[in-house]
Amino acid sequence: MVVGGVECRGFRNLADGRIAIGEGIVVVHGANGAGKTNLLEAVYFGLTGRSFRAGNDRDMIRLGEQGARVELDLAGGDRLLSALDRSGERRHLLAGKPLAGGLDERPLVSVFHPDRLQLIKGSPAHRRAHLDRLCGAIWPARADLRSRFGRTLAQRNALVQRIRAGLGGDESLPSWDERLAAEAEPLMQARAETIGVLDGRFAELAATLGLPEAEISYRPRASGDRDELAAELARRRAEDLNRAYTTYGPQLDEVELRLRDRPLRRFGSQGQQRLALLALLFAERAALIEAGREPPLMLLDDVMSELDPDHRQLLVSLLAGGGQAVISATELAHVPAADATRIEVAGGAVQDSPALRAA
Fold this sequence. Notes:
Layout: E1 3-9, E2 17-20, E3 25-29, H1 36-48, E4 67-74, E5 79-85, E6 90-94, E7 97-98, E8 109-112, H2 118-121, H3 124-138, H4 145-164, H5 173-209, E9 214-219, H6 226-235, H7 237-243, E10 254-259, E11 262-263, H8 264-267, H9 270-290, E12 297-301, H10 309-319, E13 325-329, E14 341-346, E15 349-350, E16 356-358
């Protein structure tokens, strides 16, 4: 599945109208501030209903407009709409029907952008959520493991808080310990297997990009055996009641990226963290392709500017394996792909191209 076109209304500085997006590699080029990143963000917003940038999503709404709206033309003729107004109301529709998160009809999307470095240097929660989404993409039957565990954890925490407040007894906690452990075991197993298909690819790609001895690993903070986990929850019951939340389980797991045995999030430079993010995204792409899944749509914002010519060529060759990629660049020469679709942007509008149809 590919995005064939994006139509914007009231979205940042992008001119209202439709921009055709080609298959394969698409290079969006122009001067700084022209709207290149905004176009990539519009595609992401259309697919996911949110921004990949930090800050308030309502910043996507152009000054003076009451809302922002993006419609995507998907291969096969479907239309995917995402809209947001200043009140915070959102719509996300596929072929006119509300789209629930995680539906197979929506293509996977991977993003390289400075704000996405939080995946490398941010809290463990970012990496856990990312790993769980990847697991569901590789093995769709496991897509609900995270949400099932999350619901059970929230219910146990609510019970712990009621007991702590004196609003009930703890006689029902043992059954909730068993339920939480039963949901935790398959989630932790899935996380371990997902890292198992990533770690070799990540290390190889990272070394090729200039990060030798880089590695990714899963570091669970709890036993993966349901009986042992339930027993430990029972032992920690007094501590949980004192703190009013569950203090043990996979909600505390870490997905760690290391370089020469030192955590990248703490000791890696900005450049090393950028390369690690690239290696991770391409390792995930390779894992999805090998599993027979569709490769994700790659949105790569200013990825080439800090790479030398050999590494730029390497990235283009990696992308040539299939799927769609939209790359922003200030200079066309930064993306050595002779057969790429080229879209020049200035002042938020496509220049000298029939691809833009005025609203």
